Structures are given as C-alpha cells and as structure tokens.
Amino acid sequence: MDRATFACSTAFYRDHNSSSQGAFCLPGGHVDFIDKVDSFTYSDFFRDYLIPNHPCIFSAKFTEEWGSRRNWVTWDGKPDFDYLLQKFGEAVVPVANCDVKEYNSNPKEHLPFKEYIKYWKEYIKNGYRSPRGCLYLKDWHLSRAFPEQDVYTTPVYFSSDWLNEYWDSIAVDDYRFVYMGPKGSWTPFHADVFRSYSWSANICGKKKWLLYPAGQEEYLKDHHGNLPFDVTAPALQDKSVYPRYNQSQPPVEIVQEAGEIVFIPSGWHHQVYNLEDTISVNHNWVNGCNVAIMWCFLQDELAAVQREINEWKDPMDDWHLQCQLIMKSCTGIDYKEFYNFLKIIAENRISVLEKGLDDEASAKNTPKAAISTLGMLHAVFDLKRTVKVLTSLSANEDFKKLDLTSLSPPPEALLHHLKAAIDTALL
Q1: Mean pLDDT, residues 143-166
Q2: How far is CA 269 from the centre of its chain?
Q3: Fewest CB within 10 angstroms: 7, 289, 317, 400, which?
C-alpha cells in the first residue's frame, strides 16, 4: 500500500477491534469465511479484502432478509418456478448454451422467460439432458427491468460502486445481473469486465468456483498467448500447446452454499459451476481501491489493438482514433469515456464535500447518499485515487493524441478542482 493510501485508510478506518476470521487467502489455500453480521464492519472489509485484493465468503446470515430468498425458493431449497413465472413470465432473457464453444465463450440467444422455465423443468425431468443442450440464463438485468420488485439490497461492503454509479448517471447500462441455471451449467474461464471486483450471492443452490490470483493466468496461456476455454481440460497438460502450465499454482477452490456471498478480487480469473439448480445475483464494480487496475487493463487493451492493426498506421490518417473505436467495441469503453467516468465519480464526491447532502438526495437511493453513508474521509480517499489515475491518463501519449476539445472541463481544470477539494476537506 502506498503511503498516501495508508495515511488515508488508517485515518478513516480506526476500528481495529473487530477483525475477520482466519488468515489471508493463499493460492490453493484458505479463504476467509465471514460469519457474523454484527461484528464485521465496512472498515474490516476495506482493510482486509478490498485493499489487499483477497477473496472471502459471507455467510447466509448476510442475505436472509432479502425478498428473493424468501419468495423465489421452495420449502426444500429449490427454485420456485411458479412464483418466478408469476412475476417475470413475460420478460425476455439472455440464455447461453453451455454445451457449445464459440470464440472462447458460449453462444447466446434471447428467449421468453416462460419458455426458459419450461425448458428447465423438462431438463430436470429428463435427468438433466436435452437435445437443446444445457441452457444457462446469464447476465439478466432484472433490477433494471423490474425496479419495483423486492429482490435484494446491496450490502454496505459493496456500496462504493463506481461502475453502476456512472452507468446509472448516463442511463445506458448497468452491471447488476441475475443468473439462473440447472445443475451442470457453468461459465468458462474468464476475468470480469474491466478487471472489476465482483460479488455473487446464491439465492438458492450451490456453486463451485475455481479462482486464480491475478498474474497466474499468464502460466495458463497457450503458445499463441490465448487463455484456455476450460481450465480443467486435459489439453492443458500438453506442454507443446501450454508450455508454462506446470508453473501455475493450483486454483483456489470455493464451494458456495445457498445464501452465501462470494467476493471475487479484481483481476482474478475464474471458472464457475452450478452443482445444483441455482439462482444467483451478481454485481461487477470498481472503486478507489482498484480503479488503477482498470486503467492498466485499458492501456493493455489499447496496446493489443495497436499491435493488431500496426501495419495500417502509416496509410491511415486517423489510426489513433480507429484504435480507440476498436477498443471500445471490444471492451465497452475508450479513453475519452474513461475520462468522463472519472469526472462523474469525482464531481459527485466534490459535491458532497462542498455542499453536504441535501434532503432530496438523502431520501433516495442515490450515489450521493451512498457517498455520505461511507463518510467524508472515504470521499477524500476516492478523490486521491482519482487524482492519481487522472494524472496518468492526462500524461498518456495516446490520450493526448485525441481531440480533447469536447471534454468539459478540460483535464487540467478537473485535476485542479480535485486537488483543491481534497486540500479543503483535510483542513
């Protein structure tokens, strides 16, 4: 931890009496299990898991009050298909075929929810077999489509969520998902969008996770530099194809029971299996603790695009712009949008520091209300981390080659405002 971060975090998180159970996670070893809601604070989570980027598991006690855990599950712990059909039967949902590989992922289609539930029932009845394959409902933006439904409440530990704060502000997208799938459905080897954190809560059912700490994925690449589709495939033992596989450490394995929440650290690649018929809620999120990882990821993505189309650099007048367009089509963001992302996050915190929380914002589930809940020094921590990344972005040669006249305020002015807000808050 750098000195500035240490100074800020120790000033903010003074409560060292309550600590997590167990030791830090070691590759292939122990993962902390957080049992008691009352004795585990946000500052514990920040200090022991967010900053060091370690996984952990929260017990089912943290989700027992959720509407989905009360209403979506039968008395014997199975998905309540009748209730789900009553509430969501007319929705259209994204469904992946786990039995088919397409460009290192599973192909998706959109189906009426009631058709998917009919398939799922028949799949169970036929001994978990179907000529249609194993279909997995994935990445469903249920909260956005049905905001009035009592599904879950985001735990305070995950409330500093810049991704959803930004995308909600521009009303384009979000990174809140529901997953539903039969026993045997699974997700291939991957790391989450923008190398974000993720949390995943089982409403019912059981999952198995195989986690590789950030950096371990380099040993799992084939001789072309490609990651495996299935990290358990026998082909990885072939040294002529995967020359460094034997240097990799064993994965961290987690079996997640109903009601439990798994925290996946930033940049950790993973593969996930549903061991039973399972429903889960998942968020991806970035905050001050891992925004620098996101920025490094974007730089790596742009460099990969530049290598791919390097031969067109001289004859193409707008080569740098084209690289940005290709990167955005692949990742969902380019450098100018990343600037706007940082700007929105910074301005929300500056507003709370300078003006406080007005009655309208405090009465609603708003970003400013969440910022206020975590406190002034957390807002200062966020701004300090934003300054570091924004300073690096502003000095980046690829960023400076873009037309930045549309950015308001200009990067230099935003940086000045940020530093002034920090200085004022710390007086």
Answers
A1: 96
A2: 12
A3: 317
Question: What whole-number distance in Å separates Cα of residue 161 and Cα of residue 388?
Answer: 18
Taking each helix axis as running N to C, give the angle between helix 162-170 and helix 367-374, from 0 to 180 degrees, rounded to the nearest 10.
Answer: 160
Give me the DSSP letters along 59-112. -GGGTTT-HHHHHSB-TTSSB-HHHHHHHHTT-EEEEEETT--BTTB--EEEEE
Task: Kindly calculate the radius of gyration of the chain based on its CA atoms and give it in whole angstroms.
Answer: 22
Nearest CA among 122, 106, 189, 174 for reference residue 143: 174
CA dist 285 and 152 (Å) reads 17
Residue 29: is its pLDDT beyond 70? no
- CA–CA gap between residue 215 and residue 195 (Å, rounded): 12
Q: Are residues 237 and 302 in the same domain?
A: no
112-116, 279-283, 317-321: segment of lowest average pLDDT = 317-321
Cα torsion angle, 387, 392, 395, 397, sign: negative
CA-to-CA distance for 288 and 348, rounded, in angstroms? Answer: 14
DSSP 19-36: --SSPPP-TTS--EEE--
Q: Is pLDDT of 6 > 80?
A: no
Largest CA distance in the chain: 68
The verdict on 322 and 217 lying in the same domain is no
Q: Where in the sequence is the domain holding 158, given as residue range(s)? A: 26-285
Tokens representing 180? 């539903």
Specify the amino acid at residue 100.
Answer: V
How far is the C-alpha of 56 from the C-alpha of 344, rounded, in Å? Answer: 30
CA-to-CA separations, 352 to 185, 282, 289, 367, 368, in angstroms, rounded: 44, 28, 20, 10, 7
Which region holds residue 369: left if phi is over 0, alpha if psi is between -120 and 50, else beta?
Answer: alpha
Cα distances from 28 to residues 24, 174, 323, in angstroms, run 12, 32, 39
Least confident range of 61-65, 283-287, 363-367: 363-367
Q: Is the pTM of this model over 0.85?
A: yes
Residues 86 and 171 in one domain: yes
* Joined tokens for residue 251: 């994965």
- Quick one: 231 and 316 in the same domain? no
The identity of residue 152, as a single letter, is Y
CATH number at residue 279: 2.60.120.650
User: Percentage helix, strand, coil, to 5, in the chain?
Assistant: 45, 20, 40
